[in-house]
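ok new one. same drill as before - structure tokens go in, u give me an amino acid for every spot. 225 of them this time. try not to just spam alanines like last time pls lmao
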């Protein structure tokens, strides 16, 4: 069974398991989820090699009869559809510029069973901020050069006796990131490979001492446009 077929089966188990006893031959929530997913796939845009932005707002138009019937589920249905849409986005590697928002709208021009989905992306200015995650915490990197080590003289002090006083440094020029070992005793690895310096991409793992540092580039909302 291929990935897409498995995904469809997963959606069917989650959605119809919750609602199949309520609806027999009428429009099913699984169908609405499929329409949202198709719209997301069609409108996703590649920003860079590691960033694909998808629309974050979805307006689902339903016939009057379907709308009146489905609205009785209230927030439970919206929460379920949002969870499934977010799960699909993660599997596809999509990111959203703002919170995911799904709304059902009554449209008397549609016949029973018909669904129309429109999407939009909230217009916001986005600042991409590098960060490292380790030992259950996340630290954003606000300077172009950040040293990491066990000593207080390091920009990021980590309680790990396996680290040198200043073990490695993280570099960021606003678009590209890298890591450089600072002559440490035990060395530095990126994704398991020993290195003296290396470029970094999203979700790369830097291992130094007894600590793993996950490098990530996060989207911060700056302002509405």
């Amino acid at each position: 069974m291929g990935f897409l077929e498995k995904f469809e089966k997963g959606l069917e188990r989650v959605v119809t398991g919750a609602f199949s006893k309520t609806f027999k031959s009428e429009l099913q929530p699984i169908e609405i989820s499929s329409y949202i997913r198709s719209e997301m796939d069609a409108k996703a845009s590649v920003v860079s090699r590691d960033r694909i932005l998808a629309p974050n707002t979805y307006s689902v138009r339903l016939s009057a009869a379907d709308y009146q019937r489905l609205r009785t589920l209230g927030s439970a249905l919206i929460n379920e559809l949002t969870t499934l849409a977010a799960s699909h986005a993660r599997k596809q590697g999509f990111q959203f510029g703002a919170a995911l928002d799904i709304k059902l709208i009554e449209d008397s021009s549609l016949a029973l069973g018909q669904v129309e989905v429109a999407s939009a992306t909230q217009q916001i200015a986005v600042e991409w901020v590098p960060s490292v995650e380790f030992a259950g915490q996340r630290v954003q990197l606000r300077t172009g050069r950040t040293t990491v080590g066990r000593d207080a003289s390091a920009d990021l002090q980590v309680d790990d006796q396996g680290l040198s006083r200043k073990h490695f440094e993280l570099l960021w020029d606003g678009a590209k990131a890298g890591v450089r070992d600072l002559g440490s005793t035990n060395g530095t690895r990126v994704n398991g490979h020993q290195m003296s310096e290396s470029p970094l991409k999203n979700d790369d793992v830097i291992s130094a001492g007894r600590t793993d540092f996950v490098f990530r580039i996060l989207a911060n909302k700056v302002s509405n446009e």
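Helices lie at 3-19, 29-43, 64-70, 75-92. and btw Residues 1-5, 11-25 have pLDDT under 50 and may be disordered.
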